[in-house]
Amino acid sequence: MFDWLFVSPPERRLLGGQPLRGPTPWVIAIMSFSMMIVAAAGLALAGTAGLVAKGAESRFSIQVPGGSKSLAPVLAALRASPGVSSADPVPEAEMRKTLERWLGPAGGSADLPVPAIVNFNAAPGTDLASIERRVAAAASGSRLIAHRDSLAPLLKSLRLLQWLALALVLLLGGAAAAAVVLAARGALDTHRFTIDVMHGLGATDVQVTHLFQRKIALDALVGSIAGASAAALVLLLLAAGASFLGGLTGGASLGISDYVLLALLPLVLTGLATWVGRAAVLAALREAV
Amino acid sequence: MSGEGRALTAIAEFDSVGLRYGTGAEVLRDLDFRLSKGAFYFLTGPSGAGKTSLLKLLYVAQRPTRGRIRLFGEELSDAPRDALPHFRRRIGVVFQDFRLIRHLSAFDNVALPLRIGGAREEEVEGPVREMLAWVGLADRASARPPTLSGGEQQRVAIARAVINRPELLVADEPTGNVDSDMAARLLHLFAALNRLGTTVVVATHDVGLIGATPGAQMIRLENGSMVDPTGSLRNPPPPRGAV
Predict the structure, then answer these.
(1) Bridge partners, B199 (sequence order)
(2) Does position B112 have pLDDT exceeding 60, yes or no?
C-alpha cells in the first residue's frame, strides 16, 4: 500500500532536481498554519460554549419585586423546595454598584427601587413550575429566570462561530488540494518527456504516478509540519498571554482531545494532498493514448 | 497455409487499418499486412508517406482509427489502456532523435526498461554493462546524453531498445544522424539481434543500407497506402522449414 514511499535511488533520479523545491511546500505550510489557527480557535470556542452552556443549564434566578423586605420568605420557600441547592441572595450593594456603571451616581440613590435577586442551582429534572408557584406564594409577583434563556443568543453566536471555523478549515483544505492539483499538473508538464519515454518503454500509469506521489507526499508532509509547528508556537504564545491576562479572555482553553485533533491536522492535510495529487496525476496520464 | 498457422508465425497483423490525427485526413489507409516472426523488414517510402505513423502503430504509441491490429497474437485495437504496457515491454524502439533522458547517465538510460519491468538492482548491473560493452560504450556508462556524440547517443538508444531482448525491434531512421561507418555498424547490431530471433523493422531512406542486408524484406508506403504488388506482405510465405 505504501511501497511508493520507498522507491529506489535510480527511480528517484528519474524526475531529477532536488526534493522540496518549488512552491508546493510553502503553499502547504501556509495552509497548514492557517488551518491550525482557525481549528484551534474553533475548538476553543466550542470549549467555551460548552462551559457556558453547562454552567447556565442548572443556574436560575428569582427576581423579587419590593426589594429585600420580601427576601426572607422567598429564600425559605426556595430552600424548602426539592432539587434546589445553594440559594443565595445577591447583595443589594452589589446590584447598586452594577447599576452605577450604567446610570452613574443615581444608581446608588436610595430613591431608586431595586428588586431583590436570589440565585440558585437546580438539579436536572427539578420541577421548576412547582418552585415558581412556591416563590409566588411567598412573594407575589416573583419571577423565575433561567440563565440558559438569557444566554441563548450568546450560545447561538458561539455555535455559529464554531461552524464558521469548521467551514474555514474545510475551505483551506480545499484550497490546499487545489494548489496540489496545479502543482501536480505543472510537474507533469515539466517531466512530460520523461513520462513519454517511460510509457514508451512499458511503464504503467501507476508506476509513473508513484514517482510523483512520493514527491507530493514529501512536499506536503514537510510543508504541513512546518506550518503546524509555526501555528503551535503562536498558540503557545497566545495561551501564555491568555493566562497572563487571566479572566479577560474568558478562560477559553483547549482540552487533551483538542490537542490530539490539532496534532492530527497536518497528517490529515498530508494525506489529503497525497491522495489528491495521485488522483490528479492519474487522471492527467489517462488523457494520453 | 491455414489461418491458424499463419497467426502463429505472424508477430503483427494489420487488417484494413486506417489512421488519422484529430479531424485531419487519413495518413494511413487500408493497411493489410502481416509481419513474420524473426524476419527483417525495411520500411521505405518518400517523406510524408506515413512511415513514422506506421511505426507508431507498431510500437503502440498510437491506436488505429479504424481496422484491427493484432500484436504477438493478441488483439490490440480495443485492448484496455492498462493492457498497453504489456505490449510495449515486448517491443524495442530506436527513435531518430534518440529520446534519451538527458539528466540520466547512459547506464541509467539503458537500465530503464529493466527497472520498469520490475528487475531488482542486482539484476540490472550485469546486463547493462554487457549491453554497453556490446555497443562499444563500456567506458561511457556514467556520461549523460548531452556529453555524448550523436553516434554514441544512437548506440545508447539501441542498447536501451534491445536490453530486454524484445520480440519486435522498431527503428525510425536509425542511421539518419550517423556517418556511413556507424550506419554499417548499427546495421550489424540489428542483424545480430535478428539472428537471435527478434523481428526487426527499420524505416529508412538509405538504399545502401537495404542492399547491405541480404534476406531483408521491403515494405513500401506511398501516400499512406502500402505498395504490395505481389501480395507477399498480405500473405507472407511460410518460413523455411515450416510444414
Answers:
(1) B168
(2) yes
A115 backbone dihedrals φ, ψ, rounded to 5°: -75, 160
Distances (CA, A) of A32 to A22, A89, A171, A175, A266: 17, 50, 12, 11, 6
Three-state secondary structure call for residue A8: coil
Q: Residue for cell digits 510523483?
A: A212
Lowest model confidence (mean pLDDT) among A219-223, B75-79, B91-95 = B75-79
Cβ-contact A117, A88 below 8 angstroms? no
CB distance A201–B160 less than 8 Å? yes
The region that residue A16 occupies, defined by phi over 0 for left and psi between -120 and 50 for alpha, beta otherwise, is left
What does R_g of chain A's alpha carbons equal in angstroms?
A: 31
What are the pLDDT digits (tens) for A20-34? 677 889 999 999 999
Indicate whether A9 pLDDT > 90. no
Its sign, for the CA torsion B48, A195, B60, B190, is: positive
The pTM (predicted TM-score) of the whole model is 0.74
Closest CA in chain A for residue B160: A201
CA B17 vs CA A32, A278, B95, B199: distances in Å: 54, 36, 23, 21
Interface of A with B in 207-226 (CB under 8 A): 207
Residue whose entry in the numeric block shows the C-alpha cell 426589594: A67
B239 DSSP assignment: P
Contact A289 B63 (CB under 8 A): yes
At A178 the pLDDT is: 93
Residues ≥6 apart with Cβ < 8 Å to A84: A78, A120, A121, A122, A123, A126, A131
A286 touches chain B (CB under 8 A): yes
User: How far, in Å, CA of A135 to CA of A120, rounded?
Assistant: 13
Q: Between chains, do B89 and A202 touch, taking CB under 8 Å as contact?
A: yes
Interface of B with A (CB under 8 A): 59, 61-63, 81-82, 84-89, 93, 99-101, 103-104, 108, 111-113, 115-117, 121, 160
Q: Going by C-beta distance under 8 Å and a sequence separation of 6 or more, which residues neighbour residue B215? A: B40
* Integer CA distances (angstroms), A278 to A217, A225, A238, in order: 9, 20, 37
- What are the backbone angles phi and psi of residue B97, rounded to the nearest 5°? -100, 20
ipTM confidence: 0.85
Put simply, the answer to whether A202 touches B108 (Cβ < 8 Å) is no
Tens of pLDDT, residues A255-288 = 888 889 999 999 999 999 999 999 999 998 887 6
C-alpha cell at B231: 501480395
